[in-house]
UniProtKB/TrEMBL annotation:
Keywords from the UniProt entry: Signal
InterPro entries for this protein: UCP028069
Keyword Signal: yes
Span of the signal peptide: 1-28
Name this protein carries in UniProt: TonB system biopolymer transport component
Any single Pfam family the record assigns to this protein: DUF3450
Length: 260
């Protein structure tokens, strides 16, 4: 053929351009797929990382909770050991108390006769002692005798009152006291001041201070004192009433009995 016409050249150029364009479109499709896959991988990786972080936090919380539970367990174990010791001590105490309760009847059997003997001995002692505060002391003994047969008073209270009576009698031996009363002499009642030096001696002086007597424990009678003792007895009475300063005074006293 002679020469290719210009139209043929243009057509050929168009076909080539279209072919090149089609080739670029075909190459672009796989690249887009790779980019999408990479984005999806990054997204999935981020999601997985979030899950890993979540599980790690949960694991840390569980570790902390386990430590707290372990500490609490040790604390409870120590407390349980402490309570066990207390319970054992309480059980031992209860055992001792029960033994005491079981022995109450035996103790009662021994204490009751003892109390009766103590009251009887106190009654005899008052009867044989110098007759000072005699009415008060006799009434105290009689009340104790009634008390022993009373069901309204506990055994412990009865025993306490008996000991109180003994304590009062003991204190009488170390005090100096004066009490005004009547003294029967030769069938007549004379108003006197009774003056006792503990349990050593008991005196009586008329209120006009002109006569005085001393109780004779052997004869259970009142012996007339010599007038020389009136002044001394008056001094002792004033001192006992705190009407005079403490001072020495001289009075006769009964002779000490020989030891049996």
């Amino acid at each position: 053929m002679s020469k290719v016409s210009n139209k043929t050249k243009i057509a050929t150029a168009l076909v080539g351009a279209l072919a090149l364009a089609g080739s670029n479109l075909v190459i672009a499709d796989p690249l887009s797929d790779v980019q999408k896959a990479d984005s999806r991988i990054h997204a999935e990786a981020a999601t997985s990382q979030k899950k890993v972080d979540k599980y790690f936090d949960q694991a840390q919380d569980m570790v902390f909770e386990y430590g707290s539970v372990a500490d609490e367990r040790e604390s409870l174990k120590s407390y349980n050991n402490y309570v066990a010791v207390l319970v054992a001590d309480q059980e031992a105490t209860m055992k001792l108390i029960q033994e005491d309760i079981n022995g109450v009847d035996t103790l009662r059997q021994g204490v009751v006769p003892l109390m009766f003997k103590m009251v009887d001995a106190l009654e005899q002692f008052v009867a044989l002692d110098l007759p000072f505060n005699l009415e008060t002391r006799v009434n105290r003994v009689n009340n104790l005798k009634l008390l022993l047969n009373s069901a309204e008073v506990t055994l412990a209270e009865k025993f306490r009152l008996i000991l109180d009576a003994y304590s009062i009698e003991r204190e009488y031996g170390s005090f100096v006291a004066v009490k005004t009363g009547q003294l029967e002499l030769n069938g007549k009642d004379v108003l006197v001041d009774f003056f006792n030096l503990g349990r050593v001696a008991l005196y009586a002086q008329s209120l006009d201070q002109r006569s005085a007597w001393m109780f004779n424990d052997e004869t259970k009678a009142w012996d007339q004192l010599d007038d020389s003792y009136l002044r001394e007895l008056t001094k002792g009475i004033r001192i006992a009433r705190k009407q005079g300063a403490p001072d020495l005074f001289s009075l006769p006293i009964p002779a000490a009995e020989a030891a049996q």
